[in-house]
Design brief:
414 residues, alpha/beta, Aspartate Aminotransferase, domain 1, Aspartate Aminotransferase, domain 2, 2 domains, 15 helices, 14% strand, disordered N terminus
């Protein structure tokens, strides 16, 4: 009994010490959070009630949204909802295991085949998220200490993949392949990585020039086409197809990563590449091996989404017409848009404070546009990330332009 009391006392003292440390840590965290608020960098979540769409109910109020990545307007499409229900009836709700145990279903296999054919690669491999896909590819195909070259504006997951793999990460100026060649001169490289469509700028990567650089270095090229697939290229086949259409000879050795929760309206991600690359990922990609497989019903619905996205060519045509109308109207207003032909239309604000003020003012008028601030974008390059959807009507764009004409403090700069 005495021993029990002594143990109890020791445990209590340790617990008290840990609690005190936790209090001190929380105080430091609260101070850091206040600094974020003071510098206009604090982020807060909104609550969506109901389906995704261009007129969502957010925090109990309906708004006109220009900040979703649902580029083709498929996230709440009735055909996909019906396909998901059919998938649940056939496969159940959860996959129950990792792909390499008992979680790899016929629905997964069919979707992988569909995706490989869509992007023009021998095989595809499903991942749970684009983040996990990028981490998996880089860590599986690069050795610790090798060099990886990355566009300075790449998505964070590509940088984190390099950190996880323990490679030497060298970042070249955005889309500057001449600078990349100078940086690489005389040195080896294991991999080059780039967004296909850059998520915050909306421009396309110079894929043919990057492929030439990769060939010269004996390196692999990974293109994260999360924001290109479904939107650009013939039938929405992505950034590589834009250049194929212009005459680029795609040798088929570029590794393509794509996500399914943007233009295709569902969830998940995939990597498409050669048979040897895909087999290597199955054996070595930890973010594939050590996680539960995507629900098979969702894979079943995504196959339907892929077919729908290809069938409804009018969605991309309508989207391109909206982009052209918006850019023409913005130019007439003298708005500082960045160069982009994609649904991502960034409006530069300069300071984080101004971007946040613009976003809040638009929200007060019933229009949602996200303020993008550091560290997502460089300091001094805060912006409104305006995204268009095939679900928007022309009058929606006109309403947005009319409000942008009245933006308070439209001068850009800090």
């Amino acid at each position: 009994m005495g021993t029990a009391l002594r143990h109890s006392g020791t445990t209590g003292a340790r617990a008290q010490g840990v609690t005190g440390q936790r209090r001190r840590d929380d105080a430091a965290l609260r101070a850091a959070l206040e600094r974020l608020r003071d510098t206009h960098l604090y982020r807060a979540r909104r609550v969506l009630d109901g389906p995704q769409g261009v007129r969502p109910v957010i925090d109990g109020r309906q708004a006109l949204s220009f900040c979703s990545n649902d580029y083709l307007g498929l996230a709440a499409h009735p055909e996909l909802a019906a396909a998901l229900r059919a998938g649940v009836s056939r496969y159940g709700v959860g996959s129950g295991a990792a792909h390499l145990i008992t979680g790899h279903s016929a629905a997964h296999r069919r979707l992988e085949d569909d995706l490989a054919a869509f992007v023009g690669r021998p095989r595809a491999l499903l991942f749970s998220t684009g983040y996990m896909a990028n981490l998996g590819v880089i860590s599986a195909l690069c050795e610790r200490g090798e060099t990886l070259y990355a566009d300075r504006l790449n998505h964070a997951s590509l940088n984190d993949g390099a950190l996880l793999a323990g490679v030497r990460l060298r970042r070249y100026p955005h889309a500057d392949t001449a600078a990349l060649a100078r940086m690489r001169a005389g040195g080896d490289a294991a991999m080059l990585v780039s967004d296909g469509v850059f998520s915050m700028d909306g421009d396309l990567a110079p894929v043919p020039a990057l492929a030439a650089c990769a060939d010269a270095a004996g390196a692999r090229l990974l293109v994260d086409d999360a924001h290109g697939l479904g939107v650009v290229g013939r039938d929405g086949r992505g950034t590589l197809d834009v250049y194929r259409e212009q005459g680029w000879d795609d040798a088929g050795d570029v590794i393509v990563m794509g996500t399914l929760g943007k233009a295709f309206g569902t969830f998940g991600a995939f990597v498409a590449a050669s048979d040897a690359v895909i087999e290597t990922l199955i054996q070595r990609a930890r973010s594939y091996i050590y996680t539960t497989a995507l629900p098979p019903a969702l894979a079943h619905a995504t196959s339907a989404a892929l077919a729908l996205a290809q069938r409804d060519a009018w969605r991309r045509a309508h989207l391109q017409a909206l982009i052209a109308r918006f850019r023409a109207g913005a130019a007439a207003l003298g708005l500082p848009l960045m160069a982009s032909t994609t649904p991502i239309q960034p409006l530069l604000a300069g300071s984080a404070q101004r971007a946040l003020a613009w976003s809040r003012w638009l929200e007060a008028q019933g229009v949602l546009v996200t303020a993008i601030r550091p560290p997502t974008v460089p300091k001094g390059a805060a912006r409104l990330r305006i995204t268009l959807s095939a679900a928007h009507a022309e009058q929606d764009v006109e309403r947005l332009l009319a409000l942008l004409a009245r933006l308070p403090d439209r001068a850009v700069g800090d």
